[in-house]
Design goal:
This protein is of the alpha/beta class. It contains 26 helices and 40 strands. The two termini are 65 Å apart. The protein binds one RNA strand through helix 7, strand 15, strand 19, helix 11 and strand 32.
RNA sequence: GCCGAUGUGGCGAAAUGGCAGACGCACCGGACUUAAAAUCCGUUGGGAUUCACCUCCCGUGCCGGUUCGAGUCCGGCCAUCGGCACCA
């Protein structure tokens, strides 16, 4: 890289100067309601980036893509008279810092601070207009004090099914509040990862391996903190509706929550008083249930398995327990299972049907037991075929015989089903539901795939729980004891057992004579669940956010508070779902004023390497923004990131493309400046008097219109293309009309803030109308009257093919156009000998003559 | 298997149902220069015809439909990418 090569414009000189200016003058600082400098007459605009985890690797060119987009929007809104909240911070708790600490013995707080400093310096070099006075870090005690405070709210809150809302636990009148808290303790089997020395959420396990590091994960029962997100499942689906999110992301969340309508059905066991409850989406097929299956881990297996079958059942259970999730899915091709020896009675026809154990039934979904209808369910069919169980057809496919309907899993007509016979599936479901309910054999019900959120981690570098244990009971510590800081540890190594590293700090663990502290820490998701609220009032010591600040920045009459949220698709489900959940709890409790956190969501696409592959160290195709800035400048980096293509699309990096936009910026520079004999830059031939001709005026106003509209639509690439047209229009003109330059600098300012401020200042030294900063100017207005051309070229088509073009007045009416078209010799050539059937005239657009 | 997104020149891309390829890259040609770089101007989807101008034909993954007119709308397929995946 020839960084000492002569620069096409001196960005290396003026970019750092402007960055320093913005910092010294706090140009992008925005005041809160009640603070000096706050202008209540302006509307608010809250534009947010997904804050980064400050890794040791520094920024790569993927980061600035979304950040540049929000920066352009923020600066644009500011020029349009908004109070713009555009903050940045750090998701700074997390596993990599802790693993680095284990390797090197350096405290995670130290490495985190270093990484944050590096990230911040890199971001500043790109010239983003963040309000740095609002910077936050989730690992900062002033911040996580409130993360812990929100946890206490969750702990002291329950979901009232009657009001469909979260309410203070005091309103719960049942026997044991511990059973309904939104934060509760569970002994359920969890994903234990020995390598990482921690348990993981279901969402952090991919194909039986940890998402971080790809280590094997096994299931074992442990005492864990859970958050009752499932209580909000329905609302998390319903309240997506009012949000301006991509439909694909809404669908992703809906599928993740996985609502299905069906029925619970109670099956009495053939022997004894017990019953087995199943969930089914097809209660209409109950007459076809020929056997039942329970998950191997299901508690009832111990009670119902006959002595004769016990050895086989036990062996099967042990085998499936040993299998990791990965093996379980890998072996899914072949169904397996064992008969328990027990039978149940089908409530609808009194038939005795066998109960099997099989790992294709999952303990965590529904009731962990199913009724098998092999004729109309693929999995049951496969299983029944393998083990020779009966297959009874009870739904007839449209246009097929009963025998042909075997294996038909869609909606049809009930047959062989007693009182349901002849009913279409939907009606049969409803009738069966009523029938079951009448006899107390079951009821229609709704099930969700979503599970409660496993909220504890056996880690050091995370928020400690504000909980102590006494006599086997948990209780919350007082809010006045927050923040609860983790102890200073010298040894961060996992204990090798599920005992968390905090257990090593014996003094810290001992809370009182009789009480000890909770040893788990919160997952990384916790801090990012509410950071957008803290930005509104980041230094408040009395409250997580003041009411006034929250109401102003998060309000606005829409369901979501943040006006625009930009980030990667990788957070489409987890982060966005968790944050919505917390927000709803805070909303129900009256702490925030909207039911949703994020009104408009946009996912930026991945930036690939020049080879079209995903950027990765191992491929050696990673582009470092620092190198790009050194060679082409921050403005070129920003502009290229936006010029590559639509924001949402993934696209490959191209250094020659960067060179292209860099050339464009150099042309802008040379519109104002020129090189003298000595090779120094001086102002070129400019004229404050020169008037623009009609076509130049049209370009100016068309550009004002297009750039403004395109920024609103986040179509930055076409906005830049239009500004290139603008520059090309004026490049050949001497002297350059200053008025046209002035407009250009304002339009280009959000994209290339350094260059435009520099030229703005230089022009201001010689011409009037360049007060303050370019960034302080109001966004220009366009005159629609100047956009229309007097004479337009209209294509004349014959049978849909362009045969001629005529220049006519823009107001030419239908008959004029028609006559002109028919008079065209070219048209006559193509219509001669044919009959003109029809003439389509769209005034101002085209003429199409249909001739046969 | 299910859900979603995408498919347009050599490349990144653009186009309220109305002139496909704006803008940029790359290539080629010209000007400037002793020369090169930089800069400025111009050409460039494919094919046929022509000395040339002109002109014509084909062309937005594939097949079909709606329409005076389809990259755009509808139906069916194919490919690539992303997500979910025994969810009863």
């Amino acid at each position: 890289m020839s960084s000492d090569r002569r620069k096409p414009f001196p960005f290396d000189v003026f970019e750092p100067q402007w960055q320093a200016y913005w910092e010294e003058n706090a140009t992008f600082r925005v005041a809160n309601p009640g603070e000096p400098g706050f202008d209540p007459s302006r509307p608010k605009y809250y534009v947010l980036d997904m804050f980064p985890y400050p890794s040791g690797a520094g920024l790569h060119v993927g980061h600035p893509e979304g950040y540049t987009a929000t920066d352009i929007i923020g600066r644009f809104k500011r020029m349009n008279g908004y109070n713009v909240l555009h903050p940045m911070g750090w998701d700074s708790f997390g596993l990599p810092a802790e693993q680095y600490a284990i390797k090197t013995g350096q405290h995670p707080a130290v490495t985190t601070a270093q990484n944050v400093a590096r990230f911040k310096a890199q971001l500043k070099k790109i010239g983003f207009g963040y309000d740095w006075s609002r910077e936050i870090a989730t690992s900062d005690p002033d911040y996580y004090q409130w993360t812990q405070w929100i946890f206490l709210k969750l702990y002291n809150t329950w979901f009232n099914p009657a009001t469909h809302k979260a309410e203070p636990i005091a309103t719960y009148t049942g026997p044991d509040p511990d059973h309904v808290r939104l934060a509760y303790v569970s002994e359920a089997p969890v994903n234990w990862c020995p390598e990482l020395g921690t348990v993981l959420a279901n969402e952090e396990v991919i194909d039986g391996k940890s998402e971080v590091g790809g280590f094997p994960v096994e299931r074992r029962p442990m005492r864990q903190w859970m958050l009752r997100i499932t209580a909000f499942a329905q609302r998390l689906i319903d309240e997506l509706e009012g949000l301006d999110w991509p439909t694909s992301i809404k669908l992703l969340q809906q599928n993740w929550i996985g609502r299905s309508e069906g029925a619970e059905v109670h099956f009495k066991l053939a022997d004894g008083e017990q019953q087995l409850t199943v969930f089914t989406t097809r209660p209409d097929t109950l007459f076809g249930a020929t056997y039942m299956v329970v998950a191997p881990e299901h508690r009832i297996v111990d009670q119902i398995t006959t002595e004769e079958q016990w050895p086989q059942v036990r062996e099967y259970r042990e085998k499936t327990a040993r299998k990791s999730d990965l093996e379980r899915t890998e072996l899914a091709k072949e169904k397996s299972g064992v008969f328990t020896g027990a039978y149940a009675i089908n409530p609808v026809n009194g038939e005795k049907i066998p109960i099997w154990v099989a790992d294709y039934v999952l303990l965590g979904y529904g009731t962990g037991a199913i009724m098998a209808v092999p004729a109309h369910d693929e999995r049951d069919f496969e299983f029944a075929t393998k083990f020779g169980l009966p297959i009874n057809v009870v739904v007839q496919a449209p246009g097929k015989s009963a025998e042909e309907s075997r294996g038909f899993c869609e909606h049809g007509t009930a047959i062989n089903s007693g009182f349901l016979d002849g009913l279409p599936t939907a009606e049969a479901k409803a009738k069966m539901g009523a029938w079951l309910e009448e006899r107390r054999l079951g009821k229609l019900s709704i099930n969700f795939k979503l599970r409660d959120w496993l909220f504890s981690r056996q880690r050091y570098w995370g928020e400690p729980f504000p909980i102590v244990w006494e006599n086997g009971q948990h209780r919350a510590i007082s809010e006045s004891e927050l923040p609860l800081t983790p102890p200073d540890l010298a040894d961060f190594k996992p204990t090798g057992t599920p005992e968390p590293p905090l257990s090593k700090a014996t003094d810290w663990v001992r809370y009182s004579e009789t009480a000890t502290r909770e040893l788990n820490t919160m997952p990384q998701w916790a801090g990012s669940c509410w950071y957008y609220l803290r930005y509104c009032d980041p230094t408040n010591r009395e409250r997580f956010v003041s009411e006034a600040a929250e109401r102003y920045w998060m309000g606005g009459g829409k369901p979501g508070g943040v006006d625009l949220y930009v980030g990667g698709t990788e957070h489409a489900v987890l982060h966005l779902l968790y944050a919505r959940f917390w927000h709803k709890v805070l909303f129900d409790l009256g702490y925030v004023s909207t039911p949703e956190p994020f009104q408009r969501l946009v996912n930026q696409g991945l930036i690939m390497g020049e080879d079209g592959q995903k950027m990765s160290k191992s491929r050696g195709n990673v582009v470092n923004p620092d190198d790009v800035i050194a060679e082409y400048g921050a403005d070129a980096l920003r502009l290229y990131e936006m010029f590559m293509g639509p924001l949402e699309q993934s696209k490959p990096w191209s250094m020659t493309g960067v060179e292209g936009v860099s050339r464009f910026l150099a042309r802008v520079w040379r519109l104002v400046m020129q090189e003298n004999q000595a090779g120094e830059w001086e102002m070129g031939p400019l004229s404050a008097e020169a008037a623009l001709d009609k076509s130049q005026l049209r370009v100016v106003h068309a550009t004002i219109k297009k750039v403004g509209e395109d920024i609103e639509a986040l179509s930055f690439n076409t906005a830049i293309a239009q500004m290139m047209v603008y520059v090309n229009t004026f490049t050949g003109i001497t002297p350059r009309p200053v008025t046209a330059l002035r407009t250009l600098l304002i339009l280009l300012n959000p994209f290339a803030p350094h260059l435009t401020e520099e030229l703005w200042m230089r022009l201001g030294s010689k011409f009037a109308g360049f007060e303050r900063l370019a960034a302080d100017q109001p966004w220009p207005k366009y005159d629609a009257a100047l956009l229309v051309e007097d004479e337009i070229e209209v294509p004349i088509q014959v049978n849909g093919k362009v045969r001629d073009r005529l220049v006519v007045s823009k107001d030419a009416d239908k008959s004029t156009l028609e006559a002109a078209a028919l008079a065209s010799p070219k048209v006559q050539e193509f219509t001669s000998g044919k009959e003109i059937k029809k003439i389509v005239v769209v005034p101002g657009k085209l003429v199409n003559i249909v001739a046969v």
